[in-house]
């Protein structure tokens, strides 16, 4: 008796309340998206891309040669105690790679850190690959900055960028990309508070980052302000490239009874 042949399905199968997605529906990311941080900005010497891709590709609409593919850069900074965002877009040209398109969307050489954020299908059916960029508060990149919660363009991507930043502040040294070259612990705390969206103890922040060897003391002090007090010690980040410092750490809001 001839045994029936089982053929792979091309769509998800619903079994009860569960959705089973066949393995044939999953594709490896495009090689351009999995490229590690080997390209370096010749202008600044920083890693051009400093993290592995987290793009999910499934189906013909998510490959790099899609008929309509847009690159969107979401840049975040902290200025005057607020987390601000600006975006830039560029349509992928025929045969163009993602990196040159991003460079047309934003001044990548001005970014202290950049990494791929995600790929998604936009409401109009176009495919968009988004990148997260970080700069210090004194970096301009134009005048069209908006507070993150007030961002009008690509609001979902801005929210995703903020979520990524908050997560990485917990277990990496990514704060270097938001901070000036030197700073006091109080000034660094203001950056973390704005980025995380909750209060942070300056004492605890210093203890954690010094213990992880993320910060190092530099010579000099910040003069006392109008309120007086002792001059504040100056610090800097020990590295200006992304490093995982505690993979299991999480910065949480302070406990309130």
What do these coordinates show?
This protein is α+β, with helices and mostly antiparallel strands. It has four helices and nine strands, in the order ββββαβββαααββ. The strands form three sheets. Strands 5-6-3-4-7 form a five-stranded mixed β-sheet. Helix 3 packs across helix 4. Mean pLDDT is 78; it is low at 1-66.
Calculate the terminal CA-CA distance, rounded to whole Å: 72 Å
Largest beta sheet: strand ordering: 5-6-3-4-7
Instruction: Report mean pLDDT, rounded to a whole number.
Output: 78
Question: Measured on Cα atoms, how large is the radius of gyration?
Answer: 22 Å
Helix content: 10-25%
Biggest β-sheet description: 5 strands, mixed
Q: What is the number of beta strands? A: 9
Map the helices and strands.
Blueprint: E1 13-15, E2 18-20, E3 69-79, E4 82-91, H1 98-105, E5 113-121, E6 127-134, E7 146-147, H2 155-171, H3 185-196, H4 202-211, E8 215-222, E9 232-237
Parallel strand pairs: 3-6
Antiparallel strand pairs: 1-2, 3-4, 4-7, 5-6, 8-9
Keywords:
257 residues, alpha+beta, five-stranded mixed sheet, two-stranded antiparallel sheet, 4 helices, disordered N terminus
């Amino acid at each position: 008796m001839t045994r029936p042949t089982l053929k792979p399905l091309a769509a998800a199968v619903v079994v009860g309340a569960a959705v089973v997605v066949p393995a044939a529906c999953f594709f490896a990311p495009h090689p351009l998206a999995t490229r590690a941080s080997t390209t370096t900005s010749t202008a600044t010497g920083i890693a051009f891309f400093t993290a592995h891709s987290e793009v999910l590709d499934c189906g013909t609409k998510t490959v790099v040669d899609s008929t309509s593919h847009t690159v969107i850069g979401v840049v975040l900074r902290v200025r005057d105690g607020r987390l601000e965002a600006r975006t830039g877009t560029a349509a992928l040209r025929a045969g163009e790679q993602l990196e040159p398109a991003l460079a047309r969307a934003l001044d990548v050489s001005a970014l202290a850190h950049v990494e791929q954020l995600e790929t998604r299908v936009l409401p109009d059916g176009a495919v968009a690959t988004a990148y997260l960029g970080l700069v210090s508060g004194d970096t301009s990149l134009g005048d069209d900055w908006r507070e993150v919660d007030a961002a009008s363009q690509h609001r979902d991507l801005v929210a995703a960028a903020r979520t990524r930043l908050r997560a990485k502040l917990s277990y990496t040294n990514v704060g270097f990309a938001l901070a000036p070259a030197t700073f006091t612990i109080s000034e660094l705390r203001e950056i973390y508070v704005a980025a995380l969206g909750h209060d942070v103890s300056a004492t605890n922040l210093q203890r954690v980052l010094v213990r992880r060897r993320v910060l190092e003391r530099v010579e000099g002090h910040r003069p006392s302000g109008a309120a007086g007090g002792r001059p504040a010690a100056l610090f800097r980040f020990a590295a200006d490239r992304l490093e995982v410092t505690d993979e299991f750490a999480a910065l949480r809001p302070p406990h309130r009874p």
